[in-house]
Design brief:
alpha/beta, Helicase, Ruva Protein, domain 3, Rossmann fold, Arc Repressor Mutant, subunit A, 3 domains, 5-stranded parallel beta sheet, globular, binds adenosine-5'-diphosphate
Length: 357
Amino acid sequence: MSLRPRVFDPTALEADPEARSTGGSAGAGGPAERDLEAGLRPQSLTEFVGQERLLSNLRVAIQAARARSEALDHVLFSGPPGLGKTSLARILAHELGTRLVPTSGPALERPRDLVGILTQLERGDVLFVDEVHRIPAPVEEFLYSAMEDFSVDFTIDQGPHARVVPLQLAPFTLVGATTREGLLSAPFRARFGIAERLVPYPAEDLVRILARSASILGTELLPEAAQLIAERSRGTPRIANRFLRRVRDFAEVGGARAVDVQLARETLARLGVDQHGLEELDRRILSVMAQNPDAPVGLKTIAAAVGESEDTIEEVFEPHLLRCGFLQRTARGRQVTPRGLEALGLEPGARARGLFA
Ligand code: ADP
């Protein structure tokens, strides 16, 4: 078999939907949306807003690696989509003055896919693997020696002609991003020297992110409007930026010079976003459970009822509903809480009927 080198395009990640975290409500939308999103990405640690504890840990690690002229230890970023994992991977490469080579778990189907990439890496490069929990087990095992000793044993040919060729690799940094840290095997997880979890952003951080994005987009965003959008963005910068772009559309079409709170409120209402940041699909998920609030509902049933995958429900929608206290997980499934019923406009004890067909 051939070891045909891959051509790396560091911008490919922006264009490759497979290389992105799960879409859904926190997803980056179509190609035009993704281009816009790429333009809003923070480029350096100083531009990255919030996550202070994580950033200060990274600063120390970067400084130490630089002082020792070593590759940075392997890094695992976990957390819901849209919180900045990809941005941080890019920033790491930028701060280290090295290249970022992007790929994703599902793209690495066989060990040979990985060999092609690993052998192209130069000293200190950042290999970014999005959705790292979706790497198939044989590829993951193959990665172990690459991560630990910067070497891999590669098998050429099959049957009696099979030969094992040891390949030495340049020291590199694997940066993995995952929305499902729990799905990573213990030996794999243990090989990441730095493991950081990104947490949802408080509204004041989202206000700062929105202010920066508005100035890049050339939109005047009034403080009260920024506050309103921030409060409805589920702690997620990607969602905040998406709302900002929609509000900007409405401002432009309506000939408004600046985005004020009235315009922001109207736009979000048109988008079906309520004061908790819930959108149509969140409400449908809650409604499925609200049909029988006393009995837990299985994830499969919810997924089938709303037409989304179980993964998307767990990774994209549930975290926010759990954080709001609208839903609880029990051993037998998911159950709507009295607050969740209230968010649907139902009395506690009531049942949703006919809310969804
Ligand atoms: P993830 O990889 O976790 O899904 P991304 O890194 O793709 O998230 O972030 C999505 C978008 O949100 C980025 O394009 C960027 O505009 C914005 N963003 C995320 N985190 C931050 C942050 N801390 N500061 C500023 N913008 C951010």
